[in-house]
Amino acid sequence: MRLILFACMLLLSSHLGLSQTNGKVSGQAKRAGQAADGATVALLRANDSVTLKQLVTAANGAFEFDNLADGSYRVAVSSVGYQKMFSPMFVITPQTPGVQLAPLNLAAFNKDLESVTVSGKKALVEQRIDRTVINVDASITNTGTSALEVLEKSPGVAVDRDGGISLKGKEGVLVMIDGRPTQLGGADLANLLRNMSSNQLDQIEIMTNPPARYDAAGSSGIINIKTKKAVKAGFNGSANVAYSQGRYPKTNEGLNFNYRDAKINVYTNLSHNYQQRFARMNIDRRILNPQNNSLEKIFNQQTNRIGTGNVYSGKLGIDFFATKKTTIGAVVNLNTRDMETVSPNTTNISN
Known about the structure:
Elements: H1 2-19, E1 23-31, E2 34-35, E3 40-45, E4 51-56, E5 62-68, E6 71-78, E7 85-86, E8 90-92, E9 98-100, E10 104-106, E11 125-127, E12 132-135, H2 147-152, E13 157-159, E14 165-167, E15 174-177, E16 180-181, H3 186-194, E17 201-207, E18 222-227, E19 234-245, E20 249-260, E21 264-288, E22 295-321, E23 327-342, E24 345-350
Parallel strand pairs: 1-9, 1-10, 15-18
Antiparallel strand pairs: 1-2, 1-5, 3-4, 3-6, 6-7, 6-8, 11-12, 12-17, 13-14, 15-16, 17-18, 19-20, 20-21, 21-22, 22-23, 22-24
């Protein structure tokens, strides 16, 4: 009985310890030996170069990614007119939770051009006075993903495995869609964002210090997700299908329809998301005898968490253009899901 109680207490403390991700990496970007202000920095997973987070450098070229889980990473720095620079691979572990990178010096492109073509393209991340703006279409890695996955890669935003959203470590973030509060939280909000295709998104605005016009509900920060709306008059629509394959497949399908004239704009969206998610948790503990420092107990547990589900969502909205500066609108969002999670685990306790 005492052994079972001890194992339960140990499992709880181990679970809490695993849920904390306190790793951090910081560094500085430079151009021609000078601080690189406004350069784009991406945190990459080392084994497959998947982008996990993105931000822009401060005025002194400094950058920092925090709340990192144990693992291997690289950092990529890019700036217009300069070659992309990659850091060496580094590893976050409980023994080395903080990593300070050597300065990353960007090298300018040095090519003789016979002609010059000027083209305009939005930056991936824009730093404005009161907010950070993510231009979703500016990164090809956002294609075929969900709104929640785009948020996970945004500067200062963290999403836990239960779908809770925090901004620079603060919970209670107000999430809005097209300037309207979602009135959802926790798993309901996560499911809504998980079923929104990135193809529907125009920009994501992140405000860590919201303007005074927002009420106290956004004191921890505000995330405003701006969706695409047709500006051409008449009927128009689009359809999108995305498929991705990891350990398990994931699909996302959507249909958009819009009608607009001089007085009204009517829009609707229907989407479906199917996914299988996999997470593996390993807990290994060695319990030593405090008197002679000898090995007394061994605790080993392996859990495979497999989640399978379908999420369906729909949106119907209408905007009435009362004047050139006044728009009156209403929107209805519907969301339903069918999820199943299986977590088989094996536990070995010996002494």
